[in-house]
Amino acid sequence: MPQDPGVYLMKDAQGRIIYVGKAKRLKSRVSSYAREDQAPTYYFHKVRAMVAHVAKVDYVVTANEKEALILESTLIKRHRPRYNVDLKDDKSYPYFRLSVRDDFPRFNLVRRPNPKDGAKYYGPFESAGAARHTMHLLQRIFPLRRCSDRALGNRARPCLDYEMSRCPGPCAGKITKEDYAKLVRQIEAFFAGQGEAVAHELERAMRQAAQDEHFELAALLRDRWQALTKTLERQRVSKAGGEDLDVLGLSEDDQGYRLAMLKVRRGRVVASNLHDLGQPPEPPEEVMAQALVMLYTAETPAPPLLLVSHMPSDPGLVVEVLAEAAGQRLELRRPQRGDKKGLLDLALMNAARPREAAGPSPAVVLAGLAVKLGLADPPRRLECMDISHLGGSLTVASLVCFVDGLPYKAGYRRYKVIGAEGAPDDFAAMAEVVARRLGGDLELPDLLVLDGGKGQLSAGLKALEGVLPERRPPLIALAKGRDGEPDRVFLPGRKNPVALKPRDLGLLLLMRLRDEAHRFAITYHRALRKKALTKSILEEVPGVGPNKRRRLFRAFGSLAGLKAAKAEDMAQKAGVDLATARRVEALLASLGAHLDTTPPPE
């Protein structure tokens, strides 16, 4: 390796990237992993455990260390290596969700934030009861709808929330989009720490309504203003000088690192987030550096001041990268006293709080599953296959992927089964798709799950015979239980299913994986069916384009009418040439009585 700055990628025997690191001098940094004279610290043992799985090291040379830091963050996000910082939100706590993309945004409580749905999330809350109480208070101040989009579209009369003044009734046209948008802007301003400005706005509107003798509206605004004023009085002020800043506290226990982030806007704590970072074999200073670069991007820029519990080993480099993404000057500070030290202590307290409320971690569940299925290592990457068809036609397959117990959409695949048209044959379809999945060069799963029983498992094992030995992952089948019994897991070479209890967390994870594969397959199959139903059979006739098809259907109304017509009639009434009309007549005559009589769209 050269003594240049860059990024190194450690891979295991299966070629999977298990660690990504950056270096100012690649050769010196990578060779340090092989030295035996290091002090026997806690991190030394974690490094030794990782190095034991390394079979190959690749590297990428960069122009400078700054480019290496950015590339390291990009590769970690893309490959999610086992031993790197795994920046996952703590999704076991409730959040407020505001669907800002809708015409009438919905404000409700959720437990699983989806960063890709365009909504805004506020939280998390340690207590679901506290979250519901806060929701009740906010509905008095900002009465936004809680109902689903389906309920909004199908309802003609306002619901009970409207009668209790907790919703303005957009479903029944009781409020305009402009007035509803004002409520949305107000609640966004409230969460951004601008509660006083919202209170002043409500007070001005109340006085104007009273002056105009709109007394019912004035009374409504008065109630909202009073409720907001009382809420602001009870809200805790941080005394941080009215600044905009983020506070990041990093804590470590036997389950790995945990990062708590407090958002302070105008001197007030307005939001908090928890992130489980996994168990990277790095000291907290390096973990903090990786987390900062992954958290703050051009889309989510950092505020002017960041308070951290552990200063990165190269703070100047981290500040340069974050400031460039934010487009402004930025300061990284580790306070030792005063109000800012109090904020940092608050973040550390949140990061160190007990994890029992969230239940066993995915790593614990996967480790238990490995023991029960006889696997050598916990299966971090799970994949599941399912087959879908309609009487043997339009046979498709789905492949879904979970990494560390959570869906990994980049690993999803859809297949059109080539050799299964005609009589339904799920076993042949499964064998084909298993061979296609494992025959390429995509990253292999740690465990491949087939939806079905012994037949699907046998088909999958037969397909493995044609795959290179190094590309044969562990294979199991998951069959639905009968008569209320739990689902059954079948292993190769074993007659009876594995004895797993109905509430076994590993079994529940496999069931979630299987259900997601079933949903993905059904969605794809329905899309193909819809496309097939809207495709005209006349597309199979040479010389018949969209214009001629439209003229034929306008002249005869349907395929049934066309089938009853002669070629000469088609030529005369639809204005097509006689040779084309005869080809249409011959095709329709060869199809028999089973025709799609739906005309194509105009």
Overview of the molecule:
This protein has 602 residues and is an alpha+beta fold. It has five domains: 6-84, 3-Layer(aba) Sandwich (GIY-YIG endonuclease), CATH 3.40.1440.10; 95-234, no CATH class; 245-358, 2-Layer Sandwich (Nucleotidyltransferase, domain 5); 364-528, Nucleotidyltransferase, domain 5 (2-Layer Sandwich), CATH 3.30.420; 537-590, DNA polymerase, domain 1, CATH 1.10.150. The chain is built from 20 helices and 19 strands. It has helices at residues 26-31, 42-51, 65-79, 128-141, 149-154, 160-163, 177-191, 195-211, 215-234, 284-295, 315-326, 338-351, 362-373, 426-439, 454-464, 505-533, 546-556, 559-564, 567-574, 578-590; strands spanning 6-11, 17-23, 56-61, 88-89, 95-98, 107-110, 120-122, 245-253, 256-265, 268-278, 305-308, 331-333, 381-390, 393-403, 406-407, 413-416, 447-451, 475-479, 488-490. The strands form four sheets. Strands 13, 14, 15, 16, 17, 18 and 19 form a seven-stranded mixed beta sheet that branches. Strands 4-10-9-8-11-12 form a six-stranded mixed beta sheet, sandwiched between helices. A hairpin with an 8-residue loop joins strand 5 (95-98) and strand 6 (107-110). Helix 4 (128-141) packs antiparallel against helix 9 (215-234) and helix 14 runs parallel beside helix 15 (454-464). The longest helix is centred in the C-terminal third of the chain and has 29 residues, at 505-533. The protein is globular. The termini are far apart. Mean pLDDT is 82; it is low at 232-240 and 592-602.
